[in-house]
Structure formats: structure tokens, C-alpha cells
Amino acid sequence: YFNESDTAAYARLGYNGYGAYLGGNLYVSGTCSGPSGTCDQDVAEKIDANYDVEAGDVVEISNDGRAFKSSTAYNTRVIGVISTNPAVIF
Questions:
Q1: In which domain, by residue range, is 23 found?
Q2: Number of domains forming the structure of the chain
Q3: pTM (predicted TM-score)
């Protein structure tokens, strides 16, 4: 998706050794496909943890904003799964 009225969005092919470079927001309607490992990358956000957590642990958020290992099924405070090697970190 490319919004021509948005000057912050642009696309380049063959940029700095990349096959394509996209600047701005990206909207994909459909399927992302490519060689194994190109579309199934982990995305993570750095969050402090109160307790020992390991890769793959489901975590929830405490009242003070820290993550801890969840122990309750269907908990509405679950925020994600611990990752050790994400491709993208927010």
C-alpha cells in the first residue's frame, strides 16, 4: 500500500544492497511469502521482568508494569511469550 499524498512513505528497489527498501508505514493485504525464515520472524518489546522467566514462557503484566510468568489459564493480563532472539525489537 502506498499513499501518494503521504510524503513520508516511499519505496526503493535496489537500495544499499537490499532488493527493496520501504520507508514509512507498510500495509499488506494478503500473504507474506518467501524463503524459509523470511516471513516468520519474531517481533518483541523489551519489558522488565519481576521473576525468572525463560524463552517460551507465557507472561502477564503486573500492576507495576513488569512481566512475570503466567500461571492462570485464560488470563486477560497475558502480554506475550518470552523471546531470546527476536528479529525486531520495539
A1: 1-30
A2: 2
A3: 0.53
